[in-house]
Amino acid sequence: MTRKVRLGIIGLGQQGGAYARFITEGLVPNMEIGAVTDADPAKQAMAAESYPGVKVYGDYIEMMDSGDVDAIVTCIPHYLHPEVGMAALSRGLHAMVEKPAGVYTKQVKELNEFAASKPELSFAIMFNQRNNPLYQRLKEIVDNGEIGEILRSNWIITNWWRPQGYYDSSEWRATWGGEGGGVLVNQAPHQLDLWQWICGVPKSVFAKVSYGFRRDIAVEDEVTALADFGGGVTGTFVTATHDMVGTDRFEILGDQGKIVVEGSKTATVTRLKKKEREISQDMGMDDVRKLFMGQLDMDEFLTTETVEFDSVWGGQHAGVLQNFAANILDGTPLLAPGSDGINGVRLANAIHLSSWKGEEVGLDFDEDEFLSMLNDRIRTEGKYPKRA
């Protein structure tokens, strides 16, 4: 029988429960549930009933030391991801952390450095959208230079509508001390990752962020960020949780084409036959006249392709789990190495810091300053201890 990775699921909430279902339903053929940990006795009872024969623990350290698991996944609050990830790696267990990798870069750096000291162990992050065939194809198009050099990128992703009851459902939700932020750390980390995965890491950001704008919360529910990638290349990122209609539109403009993604489902890829500047320089006044009169045949200058894939819900998450297990078993390259998790955290931190200071902030910002200002907000809440 082919060996399977025994996964320890830490936290049997929405995500942990979904992963357990994927595994038991055979969507991750090279993985089995080794054990489950949850501090809630009701969740423990549910796990025992739902997954007979699987060991259930109330303490993740006890589970890690049990010998029942080869690897773990952290389906717990964001602040705990680095701490629990390092606890697993220190015991010779492979680790997958949920997104985001943490709340602030100092803790994620510590996790990455510790993981780097354990090269024999697999360290991954659940960036399931990297397993989305649409975004994989778009990254390939950009990397191959099919739309030329990127000049500008824009992502408006506001289809995260959350009513007040969502925020009132848990005491820790939408707090600085319990969750570490709002839409940037909860709903949008996948897009922050994909944006940088495809378009590159910006050099600086200037952000206007509203905190408790349309919801009774302390953290952000509206974000507009302008990113500078250097060399005149810019990008914008807009997100919110109060737009009932919602928009998901991602545009990448190159000097030889353009990509427009609608709803993370369909992409229109336009490829220019020559670079835009060359086309411009070659046009005479007769061409300009035709342009103004709507008589210019654009097919002479470009081609258009529609890119679309069927994507079954759960298939992307299951695929990342399967890839994680394959990396453990035979060294298959990871779709989402854990060390990449710092990119989205760094950008979210920079957006927060820019809004707090009211100025443009480099991605090489002072991490101690960010943590100090985060702790100011945690202290004002008065519910949680400060972070170190």
UniProtKB/TrEMBL annotation:
Pfam families: GFO_IDH_MocA, GFO_IDH_MocA_C3. Residues 135-259 form the GFO/IDH/MocA-like oxidoreductase domain. Residues 6-119 form the Gfo/Idh/MocA-like oxidoreductase N-terminal domain. It comes from the Bacteria. Keywords: NAD. This is Dehydrogenase. It comes from Arthrobacter stackebrandtii. The lineage of its organism: Bacteria, Bacillati, Actinomycetota, Actinomycetes, Micrococcales.
